[in-house]
Write a structure and sequence with these properties.
190 residues; mainly alpha; Four Helix Bundle (Hemerythrin (Met), subunit A); 7 helices; elongated
């Protein structure tokens, strides 16, 4: 999977969706359904339109959008089931996948996780909880290896629990998406 340049209309829609989502997530700690559904529908519609304008060889179309949406959902939904993130995060990343396509979504996913990891470490350091969180990470990996949900025994591992140290993932998705758009503008073949 290689990064590809997104046409300007898809760049604008992606940027708008993730910026609005980040603002909502930081302010209200939720991402609205109307935004994620709009993102999915715009991703499907605009990929179809761009494909019809550029021709079949350009690689755009509804199938491209569906692959991006599906990949995002398959990766993010289990994290929701394990209570590692909220449903809005799953829906937002699915919308991002529908807009960007599977290969580009994967790049956004990698950047989101790198930037999110950096911010999370800084947050944990500022709260004096880095050592505890690293212990929790080991515990989570052990529990997952035995197909057990880590939050069942440690309530601080449930994103819905007030004791959990949480980070608005919508903000991280925005940072990853914007970083991707900048990288694609510089390095992706046009």
């Amino acid at each position: 999977m290689a990064m590809s340049y997104l046409p300007p209309i898809l760049q604008v829609v992606l940027a708008l969706v993730v910026v609005i989502a980040a603002v909502y997530d930081v302010r209200y700690r939720r991402i609205p359904n109307w935004l994620t559904l709009s993102g999915v529908l715009l991703g499907l519609g605009l990929n179809w339109w761009v494909g019809s304008q550029l021709g079949a060889d350009a690689g755009f179309g509804v199938l491209r959008a569906l692959k991006g949406l599906g990949l995002a959902f398959v990766i993010y939904f289990p994290l929701y089931i394990l209570r590692g993130m909220g449903a809005g995060d799953v829906k937002l990343m699915s919308a991002v996948g529908a807009i960007a396509g599977a290969a580009n979504w994967f790049g956004i996913f990698i950047l989101t996780n790198i930037l999110g990891g950096i911010v999370a470490v800084c947050l944990l350091l500022s709260k004096g909880r880095l050592r505890n969180s690293l212990g929790n990470l080991g515990y989570m990996l052990k529990e997952l290896a035995f197909f057990r949900a880590p939050y069942m025994q440690r309530e601080e591992l449930d994103v819905k629990n007030p004791k959990a140290v949480t980070l608005p993932h919508g903000l991280m998705i925005m940072l990853g998406s914007i970083a991707f758009l900048v990288a694609a503008a510089i390095w992706a073949p046009k």
